[in-house]
Write a structure and sequence with these properties.
This protein is of the alpha/beta class. The protein has 11 helices and 20 strands.
């Protein structure tokens, strides 16, 4: 019996040794892809007798080698029980923290630029579900951290002046969700909109932000849609979901935003109103209150699925796609939705569209146009009007990706390769 055990141990040992040698040779012929700032994005693993390669997703390892970021990441401003404010950010190759109480302003210099921030200390209230106005309305969605595009869009529709200040008077801007993910400079966009919202309010107008599925992902620590450099930098400060918790200025501000909004005769929602959602028979006030409860006190499994599932207001795609999980919406569903909420139009983001156009007899408009025509949706006198823009909305692309051979002597290369398996413990 002992001889068999010894033989088995030798066989296992040889197999392990063979595997380790093969893996080492395989990795030595692999290519590491990192961002401009040195954060691992993927590892290209060669396939024998082929020019193709396996794209190993190193983003989820959240690893960097000699990081040097081009611009500021953050800040994340948190509150404590005693009213103290703490700001944390990452600049170039170092993280910083600063207590800023009792003042409600902050100035940060990073990479040759100085940024100023001011905050509201009071707890945000749940945004309104219904608004009446005679002023014009301009709509955008799925900004994904793209502040340059938002500024250009806002100037083109008349919402911003050349100094980047609110210029829309009593007008209303609606951002239909998904300010987060994919882009690299998420906090830069969020802080700008946070301040612009206060400017709009002071002028008698309004900047209205709706929750999209990517805001929900941040609340739930689903981070695989993040730009890896942004994710890595925030994770040097805290867990990514903690950066958007109720203890942070931006987190508490976002969590209080509605999931659906009606202005005059227009119904705004990130994804749409599915048959399942309509069957729940909720008013807009009840729907928004339930979502607020989901990010504060919590909700039951059925309510969670209603708010976060494939048929939820943030993830439904039935206005554009015909799929088993959400069949193409019927005219009857559109009729039911508009009748229920006493509206004439439904406006959404979420679903990539080739251009802004009326669907379902010009009653449904989808605003997420990337790489298509330079146009925006506005409403004047209760009627939709498509206006021309000066800038096209594009997805973020790293300007200077780095590629080199995998080094078996580089511990960061190994961490990027093996770190994916650590996800189970996060």
């Amino acid at each position: 019996m002992k001889k068999w055990l010894k033989r088995l141990a030798k066989i296992v040992g040889y197999l392990v040794l063979t595997f380790v040698i093969s893996l080492t040779i395989w990795l030595e012929n692999s290519t590491v892809i990192r961002t401009e700032g040195g954060v691992y994005q993927r590892i290209r693993l060669p396939i024998a007798f082929s020019e193709e390669a396996i794209g190993w997703d190193a983003r989820l390892s959240i690893v960097a080698d000699e990081p040097k970021l081009a611009r500021l990441q953050g800040p994340v401003v948190s509150t404590s029980g005693n009213g103290q404010l703490m700001a944390e950010w990452y600049c170039i190759d170092q993280s910083y923290a600063r207590a800023i109480s009792p003042v409600n302003t902050l100035s940060i210099s990073c990479a040759g630029e100085t940024s100023a921030y001011r905050f509201r200390i009071e707890k945000p209230l749940l945004g309104a579900s219904s608004i009446k106005t005679d002023a014009p309305i301009a709509v955008t969605s799925d900004l994904e951290g793209n502040l340059p595009y938002f500024k250009a869009w806002a100037q083109d529709v008349g919402a911003l002046n050349e100094d980047g200040r609110w210029a829309f008077g009593t007008g209303h801007v609606v951002i239909i969700g998904d300010m987060l993910d994919r882009g690299r400079y998420i906090h830069e966009l969020l802080w700008f909109i946070y301040d612009l919202e206060q400017q709009a309010e002071a002028a008698g107008g309004g900047l209205h932000i709706l929750i999209g599925n990517h805001e929900q992902y941040a609340f739930d620590y689903i981070f695989n849609r993040n730009d890896v450099e942004h994710l890595w930098a925030i994770e040097q400060l805290m867990r990514y979901d903690e950066a958007f918790s109720h203890k942070t200025i931006l987190g508490s501000w976002l969590r209080a935003k509605p999931i659906a909004l009606k202005i005059n005769n227009i119904l705004f929602v990130h994804g749409g109103f599915s048959e399942k959602l309509m069957a729940a028979n909720l008013s807009l006030d009840e729907l928004n209150a339930l979502h607020l409860q989901s990010v504060t006190a919590g909700v039951n499994k059925e309510e969670k699925d209603l708010l976060y599932g494939l048929s939820s207001p943030t993830r439904y795609r039935g206005y554009v796609y015909d799929r088993p999980e959400y069949p193409l919406a019927t005219d009857a569903l559109i009729d039911q939705t508009l009748s229920r909420f006493d509206a004439e139009y439904i406006v959404t983001g979420h679903n990539p569209a080739e251009k802004i156009e009326g669907r379902y007899s010009d009653r449904v408009f989808v605003t997420d146009v990337k790489g298509g025509p330079k146009e925006a949706l506005t409403f004047k006198g209760g009627k939709p009007e498509i206006v021309k823009l000066s800038q096209q909305k594009l997805e973020f692309a790293d300007p200077a990706m780095q590629a080199r051979s995998f080094s078996i002597l580089n511990t960061k290369d190994w961490a990027a390769f093996l770190g994916v398996f650590a996800l189970a413990f996060r």
